[in-house]
Structures are given as structure tokens and as C-alpha cells.
Design a protein that fits this description.
Blueprint: E1 20-23, E2 32-36, E3 40-49, E4 52-62, E5 67-72, E6 85-91, E7 96-101, E8 107-112, E9 119-124, E10 132-137, E11 141-146, E12 152-157, E13 162-168, E14 171-179, E15 184-188, E16 194-198, E17 208-213, E18 220-225, E19 228-233, E20 242-245, E21 250-256, E22 263-269, E23 273-278, E24 284-288, E25 291-292
Antiparallel strand pairs: 1-2, 2-3, 3-4, 5-6, 6-7, 7-8, 9-10, 10-11, 11-12, 13-14, 14-15, 15-16, 17-18, 18-19, 19-20, 21-22, 22-23, 23-24, 24-25
């Protein structure tokens, strides 16, 4: 196994511990990077110019506790005047906060309370109407919130902890929730009723910790259960289309490549190992950060 590759560009934030970070997934705000620490969210502008990374901190937002997860609103834009920066956080206090700012003078924070345990994931509806924010929690619920005023619109009971919620940009009126039990349910935002569901076929009780929905091909969903990854085709729901076994104890995070549907990245434990795999088939491209197999 080769050594870890050197960072192309690194930026220090002093003694701050970083808990999460997220680039905006939207073309009109793709240079925005949000970094969640123990007591603030740092918004930076990241650009690649003349073979160099330009990293500039634009603004810092105070946060009352460590940030568990982040989500960007489709209304965020670096191209407009004034700029629009809108994102949501979930903290270890179980509260969700929606931040809106012009990155100059204006700043507004909307606090959402209702979960009784850790919030594991949040997601804005990927639509410029910006109506809904969805959250999942260890309190066995999925909650739908109004982005406009923070009202709780609906609570969906789950059978186990809600680990992840995902939208697909090509189908903004649908979202899915994966539970720790492995059950994955697709919902409609029209009435927040279930459309269909998937469930894992393994007899062992592997916990499901994450899932993702391909932005290249909206028929593909991947779910992480223990050391396995199941590949689902929404056009054929009876059984997974494929199952990949990863050489680790637990798959913690899994993500499709944003532009190539055949690749996915996997964060596993133990150890800080990122694996890149073909999304259909057990062909490993890299087995750790910067190392490759022939």
C-alpha cells in the first residue's frame, strides 16, 4: 500500500476542531464552502485560478455548539448582487438552525426545535422555491419543516433511528430516508406519504449508516449496511441490483460521484480510509487516500 498523497492546498483554522464541511452542490454557488466547528460556521470562497487554489474566508457565523451536519439551500448564490448565503446546521443540542445572509451586513438565524435526540442528517428541498427542510434523528422520526417560518409541518414516525435523508436535483418533489434498521423509504413532498420502500436482505443485523442518490442517474440508490454496499435500481425494487463487500468493519459514509455514475467514494472504519469503487461491481480503484492498486 502506498503512502498518503500530499495535500494540494491546506488551510488552518487555528486550534478549531472541524466536525463537518460541505461545498454547495449548485452551479450558481459552487465556490461556497461551509466548515462546521465547535462554535462557528466558516463560509469560504474557493476557486481554482492559474493552477492555484484561492481560498478566502468570507464570513464566520457563531454557533452555540458543535455542528453535526450541514445543508445548502438552492437559493444561495455567489453571482447575484447582493450575494445570498443560505444554509442549515444541526448541532449536538438537537436543534436545527437556518442561516440567511448577504455576506455583508444582513444576517438572520431561524431556530427549529422539536427533535428529542441527535439529528443525524438534514436536507433542503433542491428547488428555488425553497419550501421544505427535512431532518432525521435518533428519536425515530423524520420531520418536515417550513423554510419560510420554521413551522413543523409533519412528523413521520420511523421504526429505528433515521440516519440520512436525500433529495435528487432532477426530482425535487421526492426524497428518501434510510433508517438504521436498513429500511429505505421514498416519500413525496406533495403529501409526505411513502411512495415505495427498500429493505436489506441480510439475515445479520448490520446497521445502516448512510445512503446516497445518484445525481447522474436518478434511478440509482446506494445504501451502506455494515461492511456492505447495496446498489438499488428504482425501476426494479424486488432485490438489490448488486452488492459490494468492502474490506472494512463498517461503512460510515458513501457518496456517488457527481458527474460519473459508475464511481462512488466510501469512508470506512476503523481507520481514516477512503475507498473509491465502481458503483456496479467489486472493482476497487483506490484502497486508501492516495494509494492505488494495479
Amino acid at each position: 500500500m502506498g503512502s498518503l498523497s500530499r495535500p494540494f492546498h491546506s488551510v488552518g483554522l487555528g486550534d478549531e476542531e472541524i466536525f463537518c464541511l460541505s461545498f454547495s452542490p449548485y452551479e450558481w454557488s459552487k465556490n461556497f464552502l461551509a466548515i462546521g466547528t465547535g462554535n462557528k460556521v466558516v463560509i469560504a470562497n474557493v476557486q481554482y485560478e492559474n493552477d492555484e487554489i484561492q481560498f478566502n474566508v468570507i464570513r464566520e457565523f457563531h454557533h452555540l455548539c458543535p455542528v453535526i451536519t450541514l445543508s445548502w439551500s438552492a437559493l444561495s448564490s455567489s453571482d447575484t448582487v447582493p450575494k445570498v448565503c443560505k444554509f442549515a446546521t444541526a448541532g449536538i443540542d438537537g436543534k436545527i438552525r437556518i442561516y440567511s445572509s448577504d455576506l455583508a451586513q444582513s444576517e438572520n438565524i431561524l431556530e427549529l426545535s422539536g427533535h428529542t435526540d441527535n439529528v443525524n442528517c438534514i436536507a433542503f428541498q433542491p428547488d428555488i422555491d425553497d419550501k421544505f427542510l427535512i431532518s432525521t434523528s435518533d428519536d425515530f422520526t423524520c420531520k418536515i419543516w417550513s423554510v419560510e417560518n420554521g413551522d413543523l409541518l409533519k412528523t413521520i414516525p420511523l421504526q429505528s433511528s433515521g440516519m440520512a435523508v436525500r433529495f435528487n436535483p432532477s426530482e425535487p418533489n421526492k426524497f428518501f430516508v434510510i433508517e438504521k434498521s436498513g429500511v429505505t423509504t421514498l416519500f413525496s413532498t406533495m403529501n409526505f406519504s411513502p411512495v415505495t420502500s427498500l429493505s436489506n436482505n441480510f439475515t445479520c443485523q448490520d446497521p445502516a449508516l448512510d445512503a446516497d442518490w445518484s445525481s447522474c442517474n436518478p434511478t440509482y440508490i446506494i445504501t451502506a449496511l455494515g461492511g456492505r454496499i447495496q446498489h438499488w435500481n428504482l425501476n426494479s425494487l424486488s432485490v438489490p441490483e448488486d452488492t459490494t463487500t468492502v474490506s472494512c468493519e463498517m461503512v460510515r459514509k458513501v457518496r456517488f460521484h457527481p458527474t460519473f455514475e459508475n464511481f462512488m467514494a466510501v469512508l470506512s472504519s476503523p481507520g481514516p480510509v477512503v475507498t473509491v469503487l465502481r458503483s456496479m461491481g467489486p472493482v476497487m480503484v483506490t484502497d486508501s487516500l492516495g494509494s492505488q492498486r494495479s
